[in-house]
């Protein structure tokens, strides 16, 4: 007894040690993914800040004022706004502008996604712990936003604009980081030409993007030591320069020097803010990459290492400049003591490569979120980690970023011009986050409007000042992020608009249940053995394309399942809550609906046992319906129930491996609707899967013997089992979307040209849904929207 009592504290202590170890491991990895960009800013901040007319003010007072600006900017934006406040607004562990938008859509009816259901609100991750549902929030602002669709559209456009600026960051960050670092060679290698620097930079950039397919976790373990060594080096150099050149720089920690700076420089000092904001570029990555780690690990890494090391470096560099103002164009590399120059240069080059990683990872996350919420064309998404959600790689986006990055590097050939573009992109993303956070404070955190206004005014004023200074530099390279954002935003909005119009067409042209009932249980055609999975985007009703199937196909499967794979505005959906099953029409029709729900951070993997999970879910629904139990949702078509597909209990169907004894296999022999040719193709298909190292798991379903089972239920389950063993066919509509003849010219261009082009050049829906081609049936249909 005493041992058991004494073991409780030991268990808590062991658990605490385990949690601390995990936290420190994540904090260690975050250096290689999150903080690379932020930690390399000292290479170009002072050079960019003094690149304009501020170069005329070459005195100690100006340098002191510049350092004071950098110190307080770094303290207010990254530390106060992001680390202390914004990181607390995570969406079940996920961050970024779309995570904030997702939170808002769940706590107020702001979403433009058309296929949302009340059953989605019952998901365990839909509402955060301690917060109430949107129906109990009574706010005039909430009612005003929900009432006006144009305001909700504007909110979506703002979020998309911020997402596009993050993609712009993914182009500009590698360009300025690598080019700035490689340019340091010219400090010691005087004969090195600018063209040779560009070639070396381009080779490094190509190698960086070629590494991305290895995945975030592997890259983090390789890059984290580089960033840590880099931070310790620049902190030591900063401390050395402070003591050696000008210890009085400590006085500049007072905000009084900021006032004196603007009194002395006036408008020229305000214009220099565009260079100062480069000291906080990469801050948004702390929030955008939150899903790769966690809130606590990012805070620990920033407060314990990032903040003190970078402040020491900026201080030391300012101390050096106060006595060597003529070296401002090479301020960072000029301030490095000569004996350690080459080791620090090598580390700076490696750190510049790491700097690009954080924004590239954030870009992948943003594109995945846009895709899941219906705002980006279908692309290939590779889940690079078995254990950590959110660590993904998107090949198409990776190579597009590489080409654009090389174009910017070769086009500008100057870090000052790239810095002008980079500053605008970074500050715009932060500004968008500030506005979204103000709404989160009201709708999600349930604070009063005054708190939200204080947050908005305080941080909005500071970021607005930086942004206004940057906009003056639009002709000097600042136009790049706007052009990139415009292109990506057009792609996103056209895709969202076209997909929404297609869904509304389906919604308005649903097949009436009266027409289906008049056809009778046979639906007016021959019902052959097998299961037909009819894919649709509708969550209620029967799509118009079904009548197209019935009138064009001579026979249909004896069991029909209308499958809808949809995204919900939550980061992750638990596997036990993924399947929502219901019935369409009377029992004799053997027609069901299955809605498969994914979060915007979930990756749909190839699941060999998807068909078995689906059949088990339907079987459990049949038994649940007969006993009138379970979490069912009443609708005009019948009841929808959340089915725990991963739980085999509650059903009389038993799942067995297909390689059991021959006698066991023959005991459940049923007729098959497949011809010998089709069966031979199926065997060839399975052999191909085995040859590429992905053998398909063969599983058989059997009906267990239960004497007390209702005869109708048993008959329906037997029909379902026989249909499964006869074969499963995947039925999709090969749709062509066209604008009506009466549509406006702009709509015709958007639908007939832009949306049609995107549909033809993105991944097909069958590929995106991992549907085997051997079992796919497509029927063409034209949508006039």
TrEMBL record:
Broad class of where this protein is predominantly found: membrane
GO CC annotations on file: membrane
Keyword hit for Transport: yes
GO-annotated molecular function: potassium ion transmembrane transporter activity
Compartments in which it is found: Membrane
Positions of the K+ potassium transporter integral membrane domain: 26-517
Family: Belongs to the HAK/KUP transporter (TC 2.A.72.3) family.
Role: Potassium transporter.
Official protein name in the record: Potassium transporter
Species of origin: Musa troglodytarum
Lineage, opening ranks: Eukaryota, Viridiplantae, Streptophyta, Embryophyta, Tracheophyta
């Amino acid at each position: 007894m005493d041992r058991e009592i004494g073991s409780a504290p030991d268990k808590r202590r062991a658990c605490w040690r385990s949690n601390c170890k995990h936290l420190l491991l994540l904090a260690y990895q975050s250096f290689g993914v999150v903080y690379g960009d932020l930690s390399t800013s000292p290479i170009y901040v002072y050079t960019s800040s003094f690149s304009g007319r501020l170069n005329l003010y070459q005195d100690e007072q100006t340098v002191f004022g510049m350092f004071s600006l950098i110190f307080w900017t770094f303290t207010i934006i990254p530390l106060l706004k992001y680390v202390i406040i914004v990181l607390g607004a995570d969406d079940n562990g996920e961050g970024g502008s779309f995570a904030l938008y997702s939170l808002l859509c769940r706590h107020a009816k702001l979403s433009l996604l058309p296929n949302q259901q009340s059953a989605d609100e019952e998901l365990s991750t839909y509402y955060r712990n301690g917060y109430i549902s949107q129906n109990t929030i009574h706010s005039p602002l909430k009612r005003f936003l929900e009432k006006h669709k144009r305001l909700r559209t504007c909110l979506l456009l703002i979020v998309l604009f911020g997402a596009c600026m993050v993609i712009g960051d993914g182009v500009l960050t590698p360009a300025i980081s690598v080019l700035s670092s490689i340019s340091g060679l010219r400090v010691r290698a005087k004969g090195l030409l600018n063209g040779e620097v560009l070639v070396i930079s381009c080779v490094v950039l190509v190698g960086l993007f070629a590494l991305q397919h290895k995945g975030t976790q592997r890259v983090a373990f390789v890059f984290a030591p580089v960033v840590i060594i880099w931070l310790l080096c620049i902190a030591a150099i900063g401390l050395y320069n402070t003591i050696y050149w000008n210890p009085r720089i400590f006085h500049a920690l007072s905000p009084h020097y900021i006032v004196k700076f603007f009194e002395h420089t006036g408008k020229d000092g305000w214009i220099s803010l565009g260079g100062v904001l480069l000291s906080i570029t990469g801050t948004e990555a702390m929030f955008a990459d939150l899903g790769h780690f966690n809130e606590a690990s990012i805070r620990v890494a920033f407060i314990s290492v990032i903040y003190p090391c970078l402040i020491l470096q900026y201080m030391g560099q300012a101390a050096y400049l106060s006595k060597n103002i003529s070296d401002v164009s090479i301020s960072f590399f000029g301030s490095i003591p000569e004996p350690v120059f080459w080791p620090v240069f090598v580390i700076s080059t490696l750190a510049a490569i790491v700097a690009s990683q954080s924004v590239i990872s954030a870009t992948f996350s943003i594109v995945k979120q846009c895709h899941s919420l219906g705002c980006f064309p279908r692309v290939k998404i590779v889940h690079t980690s078995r254990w950590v959600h959110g660590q993904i790689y998107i090949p198409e986006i990776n190579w597009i970023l590489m080409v654009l990055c090389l174009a910017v590097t070769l086009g500008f050939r100057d870090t000052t011009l790239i810095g002008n573009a980079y500053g605008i992109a970074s500050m715009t993303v932060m500004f968008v986050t500030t506005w979204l956070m103000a709404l989160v404070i009201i709708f999600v955190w349930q604070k009063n409007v005054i708190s939200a206004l204080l947050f908005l005014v305080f941080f909005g004023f500071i970021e607005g000042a930086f942004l206004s200074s940057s906009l003056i530099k639009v002709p000097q390279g600042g136009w790049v992020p706007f052009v990139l954002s415009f292109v990506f935003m057009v792609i996103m909005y056209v895709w969202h608009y076209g997909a929404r119009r297609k869904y509304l067409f389906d919604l308005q042209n649903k097949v009436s249940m009266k027409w289906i009932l008049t056809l009778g249980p046979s639906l007016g055609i021959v019902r052959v053995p097998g299961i037909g999975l009819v894919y649709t985007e509708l969550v209620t009703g029967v799509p118009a394309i079904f009548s197209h199937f019935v009138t064009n196909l001579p026979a249909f499967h004896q069991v029909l399942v209308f499958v809808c794979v949809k995204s919900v505005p939550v980061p992750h959906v638990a596997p036990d809550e993924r399947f929502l099953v219901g019935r369409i029409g009377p029992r004799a029709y053997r027609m069901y609906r299955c809605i498969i729900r994914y979060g915007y951070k979930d990756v749909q993997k190839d699941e060999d046992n998807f068909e078995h999970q689906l059949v088990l879910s339907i079987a459990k629904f049949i038994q649940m319906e007969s006993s009138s139990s379970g979490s069912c949702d009443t609708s005009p078509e019948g009841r929808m129930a959340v089915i725990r597909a991963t739980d085999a209990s509650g059903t009389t169907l038993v799942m067995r491996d297909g390689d059991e004894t021959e006698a066991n296999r023959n005991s459940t022999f049923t007729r098959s609707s497949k011809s010998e040719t089709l069966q031979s193709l199926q065997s060839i298909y399975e052999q191909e899967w085995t040859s590429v190292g992905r053998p398909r798991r063969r599983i058989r379903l059997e009906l267990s013997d239960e004497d007390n089972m209702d005869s109708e239920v048993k008959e329906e389950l037997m029909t379902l089992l026989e249909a499964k063993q006869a074969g499963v066919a995947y039925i999709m509509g090969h749709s062509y979307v066209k604008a009506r003849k009466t549509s406006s010219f702009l709509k015709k261009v958007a639908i007939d040209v832009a949306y049609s082009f995107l549909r033809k050049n993105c991944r097909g829906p069958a590929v995106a849904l991992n549907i085997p081609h051997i079992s796919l049936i497509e029927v063409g249909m034209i949508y006039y929207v």
